[in-house]
Amino acid sequence: MYNADDLQYALENTKVIHSPDRVIETFGVTSFQFYLVTELMDQVDEIRVREGRIQADRPQLLTPDNMAKLLLEGFGEAANHFAQLLQAKNAAFLKYGFQIRKDGVTEHVVHDSLHAVVERVNRDVPEGQRSSSAIIQGVDEGWEICLLKFTLELVEQSARINWFDLRRRGLL
After folding, report:
1. How many CA atoms lie within 13 A of 53 on its CB side?
2. What are phi and psi of 64, to 5 degrees?
3. Distance separating alpha carbons of residues 33 and 106, to the nearest angstrom
4. Residue 133 half-sphere exposure, CB side, CA atoms within 13 Å?
5. Predicted structure pTM score
6. Is the CB of residue 131 less than 8 Å from the CB of residue 21?
7. pLDDT digit string (tens) for 112-131?
8. How many angstroms separate the CA atoms of 30 and 162, rounded?
9. CB 36 within 8 A of CB 53
10. Upper half-sphere CA count for residue 80 (Cβ side, 13 Å)
11. What is the C-alpha separation between 71 and 121, in angstroms, rounded?
């Protein structure tokens, strides 16, 4: 279990190198490929690269009855603790609830500098996949917090468009 300092450290040291070109779709499922690059804490020039997919179901309006249904499938205890902190602090996010899943996570360790690995990952993402890919630099311990922070920032970027779409269709 991470303490508040561990959570804060992960949040402060998450940097989005490349963000997907598109936002979370209002009326469908959205899937993003992610590459999370982290430096191993007690090793010189050992970098872990995690790759996987994040899937966001279509946004749903939350009522008090279903507010507790914010689910984080596939994430560990630290990510769930972080979500509970968000519920207490960010009512606007709760109005924009949906399920977040991560799957297909693979990882490998590279022996090089953090900067060189980040640059290589950024360069090697195929052009056809860049619009739906994210490259994130974070911390190895607490990496799920880094991934969740990125995802929630994407929610914030998408919310205005999603609210507009819901109003336009008469759903608000």
Report:
1. 11
2. -55, -30
3. 12
4. 18
5. 0.74
6. yes
7. 999 999 999 999 999 999 99
8. 13
9. no
10. 10
11. 30
